[in-house]
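Students often ask why we bother predicting the structure of a whole assembly rather than each chain alone. The short answer is interfaces. A chain on its own may look different once its partners are present, and contacts between molecules only exist in the joint model. In this exercise we take two input lines together and write out one structure for the complete complex. Read the inputs first and try to guess which parts will touch.
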Amino acid sequence: GENVEQHPSTLSVQEGDSAVIKCTYSDSASNYFPWYKQELGKRPQLIIDIRSNVGEKKDQRIAVTLNKTAKHFSLHITETQPEDSAVYFCAALGTSGSARQLTFGSGTQLTVLP
Amino acid sequence: NAGVTQTPKFQVLKTGQSMTLQCAQDMNHEYMSWYRQDPGMGLRLIHYSVGAGITDQGEVPNGYNVSRSTTEDFPLRLLSAAPSQTSVYFCASSYSKTVNTEAFFGQGTRLTVV
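Now the answer. The structure tokens for the assembled complex follow.
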């Protein structure tokens, strides 16, 4: 099955700086890569996703890049703000059983320091 | 617009007790799933369903049962609770069984087994 590794596990940045979180995946058939943000005590929520037919996608201060050859994808947050502090999860859609399954990375705790 | 609703939010069980975590969605989604979230391990898939009457195992299915008698409901049963099942449980649904669309999560159930 799919295996997703995420780094770093914790990340502290100064407000206004950029943050980068990296993930690698193992299943070359995976073609959908979402990122979820989870604030303390809340449910995970989708912030951006990318499909394998594109290399980069942007949404305001958030961007995701995908390198299919190397099987890695990254989340970039620019001009970080205190409200960006949360746990971020990457995921990859692999194939197993009768349907496809999302496999999540272990998460990155991002802290934006004022 | 309720989305995905989980009950209860908190539960304490004694070892050996059984219980059912409830999950309901009102978005007519085909795909529903259960994850458990443990510190440093991300979200791990327990069971999933691609439609009424169809269920399959995820990464960590042992000790859990599911059924899907309707499109809306996907309960998770713990037959004989063990301390290793102490975790936060999330139910999620997606529009398509191919899962390459946003997963909507419930608010989570924090389960403690003593």
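Check your guess against this: The mean pLDDT of chain A is 93.
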